[in-house]
Amino acid sequence: MNGTSQIRPSLWYCLLGAPFLLAGGAVFVYTLVHGLMHLTDSLTQVVVPGKAELSLKRGRTYTVFLEEHSVVHGKVYSTTEAIGGLGCRVNSIPDGNAVRIAQSSANTTYDVGGRSGHSVLEFTIPQDGNYEFACDYGGKSPGPEAVMAVGSGVGERIFRTVAVSLVAMFGGGGLFLLVLVIVLIMRHRDGSRVRQLGKAPVF
Q1: What pLDDT, on the 0 to 100 scale, is given for residue 104?
Q2: Cα 114 to Cα 175: distance, rounded to the nearest angstrom
Q3: Domain segments of the chain: what residues?
Q4: What CATH class has 43-152?
């Protein structure tokens, strides 16, 4: 062979993919942390036995969560006792019509910001307006206090947060690998060209 020749492009060009990897990682962390920390912002807490007036939207399905650990107005609640016999109802305030309430069709849980809960009930609102959400033990002997949280779209927000985070992570990592593969292919081709010229490739 007649001399040597440096293979191009340099492996340093692989670093061109580093910003994609770093950006994907940053978006992954921010989206996951921010999304989960604000997951319960839309939930209205109701200490039961008790009731609350809620402004609800037509066509939306609202989920009722039983919070095992919670803080309401500075008071810490920890539901460790059985709450069997606790019944909940939703009624339109203007006319008193009852809204059908049923067992939650999905098993949704959360544990963020010192609050943890799981879905127990759900109901769909027939028309916009103010509704009374109430829970009590009926005519039975009083039971322990607990915290119910009412809101819509929690499951969808969890799914969206996780999906966006994963897309960012795999997207950034995929672009980094793409840059790496392109550089390696170009170096391989340049090495073949150098050998055809009768020179020794220098890697």
Answers
A1: 92
A2: 37
A3: 4-34+161-202, 43-152
A4: mainly beta
